Amino acid sequence: MLPRSRTLPSRIYNGVVEERQDIRHYLQVEVQPKPHGESEAINPQANYSKCFDDDGRLKRTGTFWTASSHIITAVIGSGVLSLAWAIGQLGWVAGPIVMILFAFVNLYSSNLLAHCYRSGDPLTGQRNYTYMEAVKANLGGKKVLACGWIQYLNLFGVAIGYTIAASVSMMAIKRSNCFHKSGGKDPCHMSSNGYMITFGIIEIIFSQIPDFDQVWWLSIVAAIMSFTYSSVGLGLGVAKVAENGSFKGSLTGISIGTVTHAGVVTSTQKLWRSLQALGAIAFAYSFSLILIEIQDTIKSPPAEYKTMRKATVLSIAVTTAFYMLCGCFGYAAFGDLAPGNLLTGFGFYDPYWLLDIANIAIIVHLVGAYQVYCQPLYAFVEKWSAHKWPKSDFVTAEYDLPIPFYGVYQLNFFRLVWRTIFVVLTTLIAMLLPFFNDVVGILGAFGFWPLTVYFPVEMYISQKKIGRWTSRWVALQILSFACLLISLAAAVGSVAGVVLDLKTYKPFKTSY
User: Fold this and answer.
1) Which of 108, 151, 172 has its CA nearest to residue 456?
2) Phi-psi sector, 338: left (phi>0), alpha (psi -120 to 50), beta
3) Which helix or strand (DSSP H or E) is residue 11 part of?
4) Peptide bond preceding 33 in cis form (omega within 30 of 0)
5) Chain centroid to CA 455: how far?
6) CA-CA distance, 512 to 190, in Å (whole number)?
7) What is the pLDDT at residue 484?
8) Cβ atoms within 10 A of the Cβ of 350, count?
9) Helix crossing, 142-182 with 455-464: angle to 10°?
10) At 15, phi and psi to the nearest 5?
11) How confident is the model at residue 5 (pLDDT cuts 50, 70, 90)?
12) Closest to 146 (Cα-Cα) out of 445, 448, 451
C-alpha cells in the first residue's frame, strides 16, 4: 500500500541508529537548501539533482491516482464487515445519513490535515513525514505526548480487533465445511481459542521480520484481499435480497423485543446498540494516521496539498458509495438479524465455497494488516530502548543467523522477546474479550475525535494563525466539540455492549 521505507522510524543495529532510506546512496547526498519562493519551487535551481527533492530524499513520484488508490485500499478493510449491523441498529433513515455525515467530516478534516504536511509555506516549508511529526511541528509540548499515547494505544487495540476478526473467519471456514459434510445435521459448535492461538503464532513469526519494507508484497496482497472479501459480501447481499424478493429492515432500525444472541433487545439496549453503531462507522472510515505518509509520496508541483485534496474527494466518494452498498444491501438481506460480521450471516450451505474464499481473503488480509499497523509501535519501542540502554548487547546487538533458502537473518534478542510478548498479550486479551462488534466500536470511538478531528483542527488553526474567537475559530471549535460528543456517545454504547456480552460469557470458553 505504501513504501514502508518512508513511513517507518530508523532501525537499530548494534546501538547505532541506521537511517532507512530507499537506496544506500541516499546517505551520501547533501541536503540542498530550500527555495524561498514559489517560482523557485516550481523551477528548481540548476545545481539541484534531478533524482532528489528539496529535502534530499529521492524524488517522489506519486500522483493524484496513486494517492487515491492508497487511501481507498487503506480505508476499505475489516470495518466494512460491521456496516450492515450498524445500519441495522440505526435504520433506513438514520443509518445512511450518519454514514454520509461521517464521510463529510472525514473529508473536511483530511483537507485540514493535508495543509499540515509542510510547516510554514505550503510550497517550500519543511516537510513532516508522519502524523506525529506534523503534531510536533505545529503544536509541540504535551500534545505530542498525548498524540503518541492515543496513536499507539489505538494500534494496540487494532491488533486485538484483527485477532478476533481472523479467528471468526477461521471458524467460519471450519463450520461451513462441517455443515456441508453433515448436511446441516451437526450443529458444529467449536471454540475460538485455538484459532486465535493459531493466528497469534503466525503473527509471532511475521513480527520477527526486522524491516517490513522487505515484504512490501504482503501489503499489496492484503489490499487485494480486502477488495475480494468486501466484493463477495456485497454480491451475496444483493443475491440474498433478490432471493427474498424484497428489502428487509425498518425506518428506525432493530425493533425492541427482537431476540439476539445476547437476549431480547430492550429499549435501553436499543439505545446502547445505536450508539455503538456510531463507533463501528467511525472505525470503518479511520485513515487519518496514514494520510501524511500517503501525502509524502506525492510529487510536486503542484503543491502536495492540492493533489491530496483532490485525491481525498475521489477516494472518500468511492469508499462511501461502496460502504453504502455493502451496509444497505446487508441490512436489506437480513433486517433486524443483520450479523456483526456480514460474511457470517449467509449460512453455511451453497455457495459455501464462495464464503470460504471470502473468509480466506479476510485471514490473509488481517495477517498483513496486523504487521502494517503494529510496525510503527515495534519501531518506537525498539528505538527508545536502544537510546535508553545503548551498551546493552541484549537490546542493541544483532547476530547473523544463516537460514536455508532465505539468506542471513539478523537476530536481535530484544526484538525477539518484546515482539513475541506483544503478540501473546494481544492474543490473550482477544481470547478474554472476543466481541468483534464491541471492540470495533471502542476503537472507532477512541480514535475518531482525537486523531481524525481534534489534532487536524488544532494544527490547522496553529499553522494558519487563526485568531481566537474569530468566526472561523469558533466554527472549527464547534465541529471539534460536536465530534467529541459523538465519540463519547459511541464509547459509552460500546462499553455497554461489552458489559452486556460479559453477562453470558465465561473467559476462555467462547464457542460458536
Assistant:
1) 108
2) beta
3) strand 11-13
4) no
5) 17
6) 6
7) 92
8) 10
9) 150
10) 85, 0
11) very low
12) 451
Helix 436-447 and helix 471-502, axial crossing angle in degrees, nearest 10: 160
Q: What are phi and psi of 391, to 5 degrees?
A: -100, 0
Strand partners, 11: 18
Task: Give the pLDDT of residue 127.
Answer: 85
Which of these, 249, 274, 229, lies nearest to 81 by C-alpha position?
A: 229
Bridge-based pairing state of the strands 407-411 and 399-403 = antiparallel
Task: Name the residue with higher pLDDT: 505 or 446.
Answer: 446
Count other C-beta atoms under 10 Å from residue 512's C-beta: 17
Q: Which of 29, 53, 39 is nearest to 129 (CA)?
A: 53
> Pairing relation of β-strands 263-264 and 126-127?
unpaired
Q: Which three cell numbers stand for residue 191?
A: 471454540
Closest Cα to residue 60, out of 127, 138, 113? 127
Element (H, E) at 235: helix 216-244
Each residue's pLDDT tens digit, 259-275? 776 667 788 888 888 88
Please write the tens of the pLDDT for every residue from 148-204.
888 888 888 888 888 888 888 888 888 777 777 776 666 667 777 888 899 999 999
Helix (H, G, I), strand (E, B) or coil at 32: coil
pLDDT tens, residue by residue, 362-406? 888 888 778 777 877 887 888 888 888 888 888 777 777 777 776
Measured distance between the N- and C-terminal CA atoms of the chain, rounded to whole angstroms: 34
Q: Which burial class, exposed, middle or buried, applies to 126 when counting CB atoms under 10 A from its CB (0-12, 13-18, 19+)? A: middle
Task: Give the pLDDT score at 40.
Answer: 44
Rounded to an integer, the average pLDDT of 205-228 is 70
- How far is it, in rounded angstroms, from Cα 35 to Cα 40? 6
Instruction: For the chain, give the mean pLDDT.
Output: 77
- CA distances 316 to 31, 85, 270, 303, Å, are 36, 21, 29, 21
Q: Where are the alpha helices (DSSP H) in 52-141?
A: 64-75, 83-114, 131-138
E-strand spans in 183-271?
259-260, 263-264
Q: What is the distance between the alpha carbons of residues 196 and 194, in angstroms, rounded to a whole number?
A: 6
3-state class of 196 per DSSP?
helix
Residue 358 C-alpha cell reads as 471470502
**Which amino acid is located at 429 in the chain?**
I
Find residue 127's DSSP bridge partners: 118
| DSSP result, 257-298 | T-EETTEE--HHHHHHHHHHHHHHHHHHT--GGGHHHHHTTB
Sequence length of the chain is 512
CA–CA dist 280, 494 (Å, integer): 9
The CA distances from residue 162 to 2, 375, 405, in Å, are 20, 14, 30
